[in-house]
Amino acid sequence: MSEKTNIYEIAQELGISTTTVSRAISGKGRLSEATRQRVLEYIASRNLDPCVRKRKYTDKKTGNILVTIPAEKDYALLPYFMEILSSVYDYCVIRGFQVMMAKTGANDIDALKTIISKHKVDGVVLTRTITDALDIKFLKERGVPFVAIGSYDDKTVSQVDVDQMSGCRDLTSILLRMGIRKIALFCADRTHVVTKSRLKGFLQAYEDNDLDFDPQMIFDGAGEVFKAEQLTEEMLKKGVECILCMDDNICINVLNTLRKNGVRVPQDIRIASFYNSQVLNEYYPPISCVDFDIKELGTMAARVLLEALDGEEKAGKITMGYNVILKESTK
């Protein structure tokens, strides 16, 4: 039977470093053939079974943090992602970390893989969550500390999110109690977890108010300008009372189309958004919305990540609050 030992003891006996012993055993790294044979012959002659500690990703420190943003066309330019990036940067830099950025898509995480493979960062902040996320699976497999902004169906993943479902339920309920019935819901990409959460809240409002909703009044692709314009014009022809937008980008697309066609808000049609932003705040009339603090969201994600790097990792979900703000667009 082989005798258990560690590579430190072998190194001490041979008068070499533990790194040299590890390279000889693994066959990886630069090492002369003579030295390799010397180590292997020593192990074989004494029938030793060396325990080589597998190096953890966290063993090496770089002082860098990575923030991923969407690779899809123009998504990275949306105020939401820019504000998240800025808040993570502000929190990390004053604590001695530098912040890097990489673009990832639902089916393309090559930029993330390259950075992690080269060990350029200590940890990662993911600015969105997608169903069956490749980035989350990859980071877990590699043992990389990370935090996801958004919800994900895995309790071992550190998550920071707003109570999206409740906020969207509350705004929708208010509109229904105002007597508005012909509502169209404009979505972008339903593979995004945040879209699913907001949709769940929207439908829950109908259930809470004992009302039926026609699923054919849910429309995808409104994140694209052309599609949003086409859908908006269709809703005007159908006499829809209110267009509810999943986010600020969709809402801006809708508002621009209405302005182009000389349609008045709220006199001719009501508009509301499940997410507010600084850009949306500049539109007139002011838009009814679900409002939450994006800076606080990014800061909390950065805080959770740095605490994890400090050995205080607590997997689980932090849920932050929201406000429903009624403005002129739904009067």
Topology:
Layout: E1 3-6, H1 7-14, H2 18-26, H3 33-45, E2 48-51, E3 64-70, H4 79-93, E4 98-104, H5 110-117, E5 123-126, H6 134-142, E6 146-149, E7 159-162, H7 164-177, E8 183-186, H8 193-208, E9 218-219, H9 225-238, E10 242-245, H10 248-260, E11 270-273, H11 278-281, E12 288-291, H12 294-309, E13 317-320, E14 323-325
Parallel strand pairs: 1-2, 3-4, 3-5, 5-6, 6-7, 7-13, 8-9, 8-10, 10-11, 11-12
Antiparallel strand pairs: 12-14
Number of strands: 14
- Helical region count? 12
Q: What order do the SSEs take from the amino end to the carboxyl end, as H and E?
A: EHHHEEHEHEHEEHEHEHEHEHEHEE
N- to C-terminal distance: 83 Å
Number of domains: 3
The outline comes out as: elongated
Q: For the residues shown, what is the average pLDDT?
A: 91
Compute the CA-based radius of gyration.
Answer: 27 Å
- Decide which structural class fits the backbone: alpha/beta
Spatial strand order of the main sheet: 4-3-5-6-7-13
CATH class of the largest domain: Alpha Beta
Level-2 CATH architecture of the largest domain? 3-Layer(aba) Sandwich
> How many strands, what sense, and barrel or not for the largest sheet?
6 strands, parallel
Q: Approximately how much beta-strand content do the residues carry?
A: 15-25%
Task: Catalogue the unreliable spans.
Answer: none
CATH topology description of the largest domain: Rossmann fold
Helix content: 40-55%
Query: What do we call the CATH homologous superfamily of the largest domain?
Result: Response regulator
